[in-house]
Specification:
This protein is α+β, with helices and mostly antiparallel strands. The chain is built from four helices and four strands, in the order αββααββα. It is globular and about 40 Å long.
């Protein structure tokens, strides 16, 4: 599995968005089990949405007004839950691309 750990495969990911241009019409959400994601999304999710990787982004400054905020909840095997509220300016471009792919493939609009 190319370095993907069994613990990662058992993770559940929940992402909702808020904010954006005046906060209108941009809310989206996705819930996915990592093990059910197709490759390469599975491998990317394991590395980019790992709680340690997301935790390191909390210190990044938020830039600009009317930015999207990503509310990310990672549920790990054994019931551990990690919650992150990260502005789009705090997330690397590759992570934003991954989130966009998850939202496009598995997401809904509330």
């Amino acid at each position: 599995m190319g370095g993907v750990t069994a613990g990662c495969l058992a993770m559940m990911i929940s992402i909702t968005t808020s904010g954006g241009i005046g906060g209108f019409g941009l809310a989206r959400s996705v819930q996915a089990s990592v093990e059910n994601l197709p490759e390469p999304l599975r491998t990317e999710a394991c590395s980019r949405l790992d709680p340690r990787a997301l935790g390191a982004l909390r210190a990044a400054p938020t830039r600009g007004a009317d930015r999207v905020v990503y509310h990310i909840v990672i549920t790990q095997p054994g019931g551990g839950v990690a919650r992150f509220d990260l502005g789009e300016g705090a997330l690397p471009a590759d992570t934003l691309d991954l989130i966009d792919a998850l939202l496009a493939e598995h997401g809904t609009r509330p």
